[in-house]
């Protein structure tokens, strides 16, 4: 993978973001109690980064009843004044990081605590991305689904989006094809129900079924139903050859509906299309100048990760899993798919193999946990199969349950997107329950930005990086009472060592804890200390702030 040379000039510090107003209080989830009444904590010796992009400054911070009580000059208060003290001498103190793009929807229901995010300093994550969120039908609706999750409890604060796929499946009961008028009405009613239950917005995954078959007008109609202040997040139709056309579709939806749009994990995917992010960012800037409220996020790696099924043509994925399995056992349809996958002719869909080749695609997890960590090219040699036959073999023998890491990007493009003022930092982390060798972004994204892209490469200055991890994301997603270190807000905080913070997760060994995260606090409680999860789920499910 290539990298840019020289030391880019850091962008100007952005202005402070407006503070969202929190909605009426709702009961906390089990295990999410606040600091006991009457107990006030004094954090001393820290250098504060407040999440607005303002320069760091020495300050002491007091915390009472789970909220930040004061941010004051060092020495203003002392333990003799009756405070319990937490010494943060030599540390940077920031708001808890907010991940705008996660796939940890079902993590609360796992027996194992999902600590992949909290150990990075992430205290809040937005789930339900790429059109994928839990099916509400087994629970009796979105409200009952969220109550089930609340009862299980959360490691991080939980901000759910509702996925277009979930609406489609629930409205059409798995029936293939486009929705008819009654189906569309049911999808709209389900979306309304999800918003009433507290969802933060709608997401789409337009390289996956059913999104890949969905007309833009259907998405416009759904997004237009979103309440004011709710958001539409999209994994666009094509992040390679047709990146510009995909960006235009996202912009058009925002212009037609007046709703905020978030472009998920913006990239230029596929070796022939490297450099395409420059045009995409310029087009997004023009749209913002014309009044479209649109932003983007990025993970700080030059490889993506998704299901291996995504390499197949859209027609191959139509219908349910049984239909896909029948096609995998039909030599005529398999040969048709191979011919299309290995042909770089523009067929109107994002062809991952044509863009990257088999040697850039690594198997990250399988149902049996065989073949993990090997590329398709390596498996072709080991199994004495043609590379496309490896894909078919894996999908057949692993019951479609195969995920991959695709080394599809140029680091220069990653840095370009990261540097753009409206870019938030994300993980795009998949569920830990998949096992195998997940993309290291699941364990290292936020410390990696602070270590590699701030301290080592100078792509961002530290205040700007923290803003992209906190205040900017809180503003875009209307996350209540978080994202800034200021009096009155919830005391979700992270203390880190500027000199040592960084990621240690690799593609070969991804489940490694980052360095330099000294402690993490949620609502006044320390939940991580010196890289160790202390074992109590103190996150809560949040509801969108009332945006003025």
Structural class comes to alpha/beta
Strand % is 15-25%
Quick one: CATH superfamily of the largest domain? Metal-dependent hydrolases
Number of strands: 21
* Gyration radius from CA atoms, angstroms: 23 Å
Which descriptor suits the 3D outline? globular
CATH C-level name of the largest domain: Alpha Beta
In short:
Strands 1, 2, 3, 4, 5, 18, 19, 20 and 21 form a 9-stranded mixed β-sheet that branches. Strands 9-10-11-12-13-17 form a 6-stranded parallel β-sheet, sandwiched between helices. It is built from 15 helices and 21 strands.
Describe it for me?
With 548 residues, the protein is α/β, with parallel strands linked by helices. It has two domains: 95-302 and 409-533, Metal-dependent hydrolases (TIM Barrel, Alpha-Beta Barrel); 310-406, no CATH class. The chain is built from 15 helices and 21 strands. It has helices at residues 142-152, 164-172, 181-197, 216-223, 243-257, 277-289, 321-328, 331-341, 352-356, 376-383, 387-397, 411-419, 441-456, 462-469, 471-477; strands spanning 40-48, 57-64, 67-72, 84-87, 92-95, 97-99, 122-127, 157-160, 162-163, 201-205, 231-235, 260-263, 294-298, 304-307, 361-366, 402-406, 423-425, 493-496, 517-522, 525-529, 532-533. It is globular. Residues 1-38 have low confidence and may be disordered.
């Amino acid at each position: 993978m290539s990298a840019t040379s020289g030391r880019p000039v850091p962008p100007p510090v952005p202005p402070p973001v407006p503070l969202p107003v929190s909605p009426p209080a709702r009961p906390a989830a089990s295990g999410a109690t606040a600091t006991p009444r009457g107990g006030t904590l004094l954090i001393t010796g820290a250098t504060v980064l407040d999440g607005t992009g303002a320069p760091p400054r020495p300050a002491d911070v007091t915390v009472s009843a789970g909220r930040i009580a004061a941010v004051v000059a060092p020495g203003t208060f002392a333990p003799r004044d009756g405070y319990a003290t937490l010494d943060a001498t030599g540390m940077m103190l920031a708001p808890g990081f907010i991940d705008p793009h996660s796939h940890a929807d079902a993590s609360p229901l796992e027996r194992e605590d999902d600590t992949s995010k909290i150990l990075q300093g992430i205290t809040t994550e937005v789930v339900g991305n790429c059109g994928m969120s839990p099916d509400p039908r087994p629970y009796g609706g979105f409200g009952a689904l969220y109550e089930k999750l609340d009862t299980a409890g959360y490691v991080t604060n939980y901000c759910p989006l509702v996925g277009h796929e979930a609406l489609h499946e629930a409205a059409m009961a798995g029936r293939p094809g486009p929705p008819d008028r009654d189906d569309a009405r049911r999808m709209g009613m389900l979306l309304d129900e999800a918003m009433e239950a507290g969802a933060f917005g709608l997401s789409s995954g337009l390289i996956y079924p059913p999104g890949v078959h969905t007309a833009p007008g259907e998405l416009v109609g759904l997004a237009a139903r979103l309440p004011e202040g709710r958001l539409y997040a999209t994994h666009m139709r094509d992040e390679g050859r047709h990146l510009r056309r995909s960006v235009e579709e996202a912009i058009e939806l925002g212009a037609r509906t007046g709703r905020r749009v978030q472009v998920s994990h913006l990239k230029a995917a596929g070796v022939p299309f490297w450099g395409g992010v420059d045009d995409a960012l310029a087009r997004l800037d023009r749209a913002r100048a014309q009044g479209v409220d649109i932003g983007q996020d990025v993970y700080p790696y030059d490889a993506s990760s998704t299901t291996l099924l995504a390499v197949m043509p859209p027609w191959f994925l139509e219908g349910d899993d049984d239909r896909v399995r029948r096609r995998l056992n039909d030599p005529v349809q398999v040969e048709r798919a191979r011919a299309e996958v290995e042909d770089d002719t523009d067929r109107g869909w994002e062809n991952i193999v044509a863009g990257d080749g088999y040697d850039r695609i690594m198997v990250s997890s399988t149902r049996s946990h065989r073949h993990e960590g090997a590329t398709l090219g390596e498996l072709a040699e080991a199994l004495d199969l043609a590379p496309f036959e490896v894909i078919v073999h894996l999908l057949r023998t692993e019951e479609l349950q195969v995920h991959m890491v695709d080394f599809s990007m140029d680091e220069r493009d990653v840095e370009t997107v990261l540097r753009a003022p409206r870019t938030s930092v994300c993980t795009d982390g998949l569920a830990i329950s998949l096992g195998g060798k997940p993309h290291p972004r699941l364990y290292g994204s936020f410390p990696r930005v602070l270590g590699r892209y701030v301290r080592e490469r100078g792509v961002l200055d530290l205040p700007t990086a923290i803003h992209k991890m906190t205040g900017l994301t809180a503003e875009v997603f209307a996350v209540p009472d978080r994202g800034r270190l200021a009096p009155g807000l919830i005391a979700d905080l992270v203390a880190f060592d500027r000199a040592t913070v960084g990621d240690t997760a690799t593609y070969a060994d991804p489940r490694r804890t980052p360095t330099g995260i000294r402690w993490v606090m949620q609502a006044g409680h320390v939940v991580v200390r010196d890289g160790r999860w202390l074992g109590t789920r103190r996150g809560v499910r949040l509801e969108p702030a009332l945006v003025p």
